[in-house]
Each structure stands twice: as structure tokens, then as C-alpha cells.
Amino acid sequence: MSKFPILYWPYKTNGNADYQLARKVINTATGLMPDVISDDLDLTAIFKENENAVVYYPVFCESCGWWGELLGANAVIVEKQIISPECQLMVVVAESHAKSHGSQHLLAAEIRPASGFFKKMNSSIATVTDMLATDAGTILALFSGKNQNQFINIIESTGNSYLGCIGQY
């Protein structure tokens, strides 16, 4: 199987306009039709097999916690492509091949909820964009911000765990 490009699509494909449009957008951007993965996505294995792989990951309106699959995979979002009002494609590459395309970053952290922490994070440092509660009583939170080092310092100073940067665009 070719590993560039790859469309991760775990949904029904027959008659799905977003699926057809996603394939068209990828073909236009790369000049190639994407290989499609419809079962479990293992980014670590994909990037181990071919570090030049590019994975197009669909995110639909009101999707919660979609970015959790990217944590720990040394995967970075380098771009997003809007394909319809309901769906956008996150362009995911191996961290070693990522180049910053701007000043905004997606930053993920595991935190224990505290009002002071959220007051600091909804500031010029970072803004909460998505959260997902875990069974362990922690929250995985996705932030949008400009300064990754400042973000890490705030998290660590409050005694929380930093899981890593999962993207930048």
C-alpha cells in the first residue's frame, strides 16, 4: 500500500458526498488519489513504515475529542482543509517532517480541573477549544495558542501533566 497520501475515513462511503469531496480535494492538492483506511488508525505504525506519509483526518462539526488519537503518535497537524460546512480535513504528518505554517498551535494537555487554571488559559497564552473527560477524573484539553513554551510553563507550574503539541497551522 502506498503511504502518500492516506485518507482516514471510518464512516460509510457509499453515497457520502463529504467522502467523495475529500478524495477530490486530496487529489487536487497532491495529484494522487489517496489510499483509504477505514478501520483503526495507527499513526505510529504508519509513520514508522513511511515517515513521509500524509494522513488526511476528517473532523465533523461538533466532534468532541477527535484529536485524542493523535496523542503519543509523534503526529502533527500542519494544515486544515475545509471541504464542506460540516467537515474539514486535518492534514497530519510525522512530527519530524512538520514545518510551522503560522503562529497558531494546537496544544494538548491532561489537566485536573481548577478554576484558576482555566482563568489563566483563557487568555493571551491559550484558549480552550475542546475538552474530553476521562474515567480517571482528569480532562484532556485542546488549546489554541501562540507560544508553546509559555503554555508548557503554565501547565507545569500548576502541577498538571503536559502531553505534547499535536499540531500547528
Based on the model shown, name its key terms.
Alpha-Beta Plaits; alpha+beta; 169 residues; D-Maltodextrin-Binding Protein, domain 2; 2 domains; 22% helix
Low-confidence stretches: none
Range of strand content = 25-35%
Taking the alpha carbons of the first and last residues, their distance comes to: 28 Å
Overall number of domains? 2
Secondary-structure arrangement, i.e. CATH architecture of the largest domain: 3-Layer(aba) Sandwich
Walk across the major sheet and give the strand order.
2-1-3-5-4
The geometry reads as: elongated
What is the count of β-strands? 9
Quaternary structure of the protein? single chain
**Share of residues in helices:** 10-25%
CATH fold-type name of the largest domain: D-Maltodextrin-Binding Protein, domain 2
Give the CATH level 1 class of the largest domain: Alpha Beta
- Give the topology string: H per helix, E per strand: EHEHEEEEHEEHE
| Secondary structure category | alpha+beta
* Contiguous helical run count: 4
Largest sheet: 5 strands, mixed
Q: What does the average pLDDT come to?
A: 84
Cα gyration radius (Å): 17 Å
